[in-house]
């Protein structure tokens, strides 16, 4: 299993990792990705995604899509989608929102609470596991595809 592991000492470190992931995707992979984010409430999933979205070129606010399920960012040539499936009542809802259209070679999807998507979302290129570690956070980025492998290798480099 190819994975990168680190301690994130504060919120800034979590944001910085999101921004590093954005730089790797833009400069090294040049390809869309699907990322799952796992971790308890408050572990830093949205914070890390905020760093990613901003690293992909968004300069405004990043709000949590808790009630809307997805927040889209058109960051030409990239489409960045921040999903939070915490409040998804039924995976069928994803069918109604045209879930399949969200995933392609230029779209980057970061998905909080992916297990609530049932079988409706594609498999991940990499999984980000966040956990509490005293005042800090621990993070693991685990590769799940050839693309994810490349990304993890870049993180470790
Ligand atoms: N590395 C870190 N160390 C300590 N606190 C952090 C760290 N990263 C984020 N935080 C804080 O933890 C909280 C994470 O909230 P959020 O990102 O919304 O979590 P989640 O989306 O996983 O529920 C925020 O209050 C943020 O400031
Ligand atoms: Mg969140």
TrEMBL record:
<dbReference type="Pfam" id="PF02367">
    <property type="entry name" value="TsaE"/>
</dbReference>
<dbReference type="InterPro" id="IPR003442">
    <property type="entry name" value="T6A_TsaE"/>
</dbReference>
<keyword id="KW-0067">ATP-binding</keyword>
<keyword id="KW-0460">Magnesium</keyword>
<keyword id="KW-0819">tRNA processing</keyword>
<keyword id="KW-0963">Cytoplasm</keyword>
<keyword id="KW-0479">Metal-binding</keyword>
<dbReference type="InterPro" id="IPR027417">
    <property type="entry name" value="P-loop_NTPase"/>
</dbReference>
<comment type="similarity">
    <text>Belongs to the TsaE family.</text>
</comment>
<keyword id="KW-0547">Nucleotide-binding</keyword>
<protein>
    <recommendedName>
        <fullName>tRNA threonylcarbamoyladenosine biosynthesis protein TsaE</fullName>
    </recommendedName>
</protein>
């Amino acid at each position: 299993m190819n994975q990168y592991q680190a301690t994130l000492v504060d919120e800034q470190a979590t944001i910085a990792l999101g921004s590093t992931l954005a730089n790797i995707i833009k400069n090294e992979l040049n390809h869309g990705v699907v990322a799952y984010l796992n971790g308890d409430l408050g572990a830093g999933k949205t914070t890390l995604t905020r760093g990613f979205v901003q690293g992909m070129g968004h300069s405004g606010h990043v709000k949590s899509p808790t009630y809307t399920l997805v927040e889209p960012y058109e960051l030409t040539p990239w489409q960045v989608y921040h999903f939070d499936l915490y409040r998804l009542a039924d995976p069928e809802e994803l069918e109604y929102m045209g879930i399949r259209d969200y995933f392609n070679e230029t779209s980057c999807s970061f998905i909080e609470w992916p297990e609530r998507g049932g079988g409706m979302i594609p498999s991940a290129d990499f999984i980000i596991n966040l956990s509490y570690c005293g005042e800090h956070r621990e993070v693991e980025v685990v590769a799940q595809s050839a693309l994810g492998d490349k990304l993890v290798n870049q993180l470790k480099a």
